[in-house]
């Protein structure tokens, strides 16, 4: 009797790339610290300041720590998009990995998709940590409008990744990608309200900030946190920036 062996199922190339990139990410404790631990650690430091736990009439009767939780949730997305992802993708291109992948069944786009997916997921986990610590340690209310909060957070993460993809597209080396990311990093944190809450900024500056992706994201997250549906203008700004940045990244990206 002839025995026919069952065909061996091999994982898809895309899944294999995803697993490999996940293992490599877990071997980078420095990158994981800045994405996962830094926003939460900063939240603990700010929440330990007594003035941050007092009600501020200038902020509409809420505490500074209540305002800063959405800001630090957004900080995690900015760190992911501008600091974690661009040096890795640019390094792959600089070392010729993307070019060599073009001659294999695994397309370079699979690696880029895996990188964006893993970094996006890491940023969202960091956001969840900030929300959990804020609730348990400082009695910060969970988002009152959960659906609006999730939508704003996903759009903010997409905008941050699109900006990181653009940096990866224009930078020729990993070192240059790090430098460009750093140049954009601090203005992004400022527009998100890390140094001064967007609500407390002078009127003219606030009107400028809210047409930038992370200024609009902060306002949308803050509105959803207090139980209101985010203004469609803020969500529209986020969506528009994501589309424009993604189109520019696709236009200028090179595999080698």
UniProtKB/TrEMBL annotation:
Instruction: Say which domain of life the source belongs to.
Output: Bacteria
Q: Which residues form the ABC transmembrane type-2 domain?
A: 30-256
Q: Does the keyword Hydrolase apply?
A: no
Keyword annotations from UniProtKB, A to Z: Antibiotic resistance, Cell membrane, Membrane, Transmembrane, Transmembrane helix, Transport
Q: Where in the cell is it found?
A: Cell membrane; Membrane
The UniProt entry lists the main location of this chain as membrane
InterPro entries reported for this sequence: ABC-2_transporter, ABC2_TM, ABC2_TM_bact-type, ABC_2_transport
Name the membrane topology term.
Multi-pass membrane protein
Pfam families given in the database record = ABC2_membrane_3
Q: Where are the transmembrane segments?
A: 32-52, 67-89, 110-134, 146-169, 176-196, 232-253
Protein family according to the UniProt entry: Belongs to the ABC-2 integral membrane protein family.
Q: What is this protein called?
A: Transport permease protein
- The species this protein belongs to is Kribbella hippodromi
